[in-house]
Design brief:
- Three copies of one chain form a homotrimer.
- In chain A, 78% of the residues lie in helices and 0% in strands.
- The first copy, chain A, has one domain: Phosphate transport system protein phou homolog 2, domain 2 (Methane Monooxygenase Hydroxylase, Chain G, domain 1, Up-down Bundle), CATH 1.20.58.220.
- Chain A is mainly α and 208 residues long.
- Chain A is built from six helices and no strands.
- Chains in contact: A-B, A-C, B-C.
- Chains A and B meet through helix 5 and helix 6 of A and helix 2 and helix 6 of B.
């Protein structure tokens, strides 16, 4: 099994290098958003690191698509490369937007639900970063996709609680508008990690 | 014409079986959401049936994608199978979310517009469930797609009325926030039925 | 170079004709939304022209997809034709929705930020309309895609300013709800012009 990665020519292996970079970038974005929410408002400067992370994600996505458009024979199906690159890009985009809203909406203190959701995203990011290198020789990643699915379900549960408490009588409408937006981005980030896991699993089923 | 479905090998026919299941599931979800809105708040238990429906939809979608990833020669183009499965899945997801909001947002009474929109979704679901079996031997479905398009236009008209009355002076902002969200999900469900119909029609044009 | 467009058979050239139509339609929609916002509320009748534009966009998209489903050999990759048609369609849809909200939400006067965003969309529409004819003989469009990307970044900057001023203390929640929706559609329109530019560039990279 160990030698299987040599099956691919050097130019083909570059796709896997780029996907690994994207995985590391997601793990980093997840850790930043977790810290940003848990320490807010004492984490204003983390927002800058998140923007850097998002630009880095854009760069990686661009490199993958550019390489895809220039490559005739790809190590995995073209549409899977495209779908995986897009899903990985979405994760970081949504994370960055959620963090950005804290400053833009002048949030004074994060809710407990938001802190929990950010921690869930960080865990999912770590699972994805761990799964991606296994793509290189099509090793089983079931352990990681189960974990990401579990986290997404956990995120759904927290989100429902968060919305329910937001809509209890007596809440300020402006608070509801702000937090609904932030929760939505955090949910989109979690959904995007699940989508990424599903695409990874689909690629493995096709290729083994 | 009647014997045409034998054109496909048994393993290929399973795709059509799964799409038919998805069609029945959408019809059922449509009927549930119609009842849920028309009888609310005396239909709390319908929400549970809708969640079951949504899980069933997830299971069917998963089965289709899994089968697709394992099948080399498919009876219709791979990307059409994927697009159709996704669109059918979206319909039920949006329906379930719209229903879920009734409880989550502590809605006391549904608006007339919401009841009308839910009834339109139920009709569109029935039309889609009737169209899908015709895919099996590529029989004309124009009658059904015209119907789904008509319903989507009707839904747009009702939605615009609903939004206009929501934004009239003197409305409570919290009501606007709640109902905008619910209307949006109902609209997304209707849009997804139209997208489904367009994909079905595209498949027929390609294959006849 | 001038004779290169003859490389394609007449039936294949029809795809380029339709994309050029879509480009002109986007340019027109952009000019209408710019006028609608800058002159509001003295531009109620422009809304009707925008609806016509949106219907025209639907017609062009339908024609492209129909032709795609009936054509076996296409001058550019099928998935690129589909992606480009969808992205072009999205631009006009979002523009039309943004304009529609002015009346539906009973907006009395547009914000300076909204006027700026509409002007940015108009510029991006002009750049896309100028780039599309170059697809016909795969001429370089880098100048135009750089311009669209610049406009999208500029739009992001204006949007962030707009949201920040919307969430300053003391704003009426109903105003925030209305304008957040309108800004969101204007942002989606700008994002869709960038997506269009990226798809155009991808097609050129593949084909040159």
């Amino acid at each position: 099994m160990a030698g299987l990665s040599n099956f691919f020519a050097p130019r083909e292996r570059e796709f896997f290098d780029l996907f690994e970079e994207a995985g590391h970038n997601i793990e980093r974005a997840g850790k930043l958003i977790e810290r940003m929410f848990s320490d807010w408002p004492d984490s204003v400067e983390v927002a800058r690191d998140l923007v850097v992370c998002e630009h880095e994600g854009d760069r990686i996505t661009h490199d993958i698509i550019y390489k895809l458009n220039q490559t005739f024979v790809t190590p995995i199906d073209r549409e899977d490369i495209y779908a995986l690159a897009s899903a990985l890009d979405d994760v970081v985009d949504y994370i960055e937007e959620a963090g950005d809203f804290l400053g833009l909406y002048r949030i004074e203190a994060p809710t407990q639900h938001a802190i929990q959701l950010a921690a869930i995203i960080a865990e999912a990011g770590t699972a994805i970063a761990a799964a991606i290198p296994r793509l290189r020789d099509f090793r089983d990643i079931h352990h990681y996709t189960v974990e990401v699915n579990r986290l997404e379900n956990e995120g759904d549960r927290v989100l429902r609680e968060a919305l329910a408490s937001l809509f209890q009588a007596g809440i300020d409408p402006m608070m509801v508008i702000r937090w609904k937006d932030i929760y939505e981005r955090l949910e989109q980030a979690t959904d995007a990690t699940e989508k990424t896991a599903n695409i990874l699993e689909g690629i493995l089923i096709k290729n083994t």
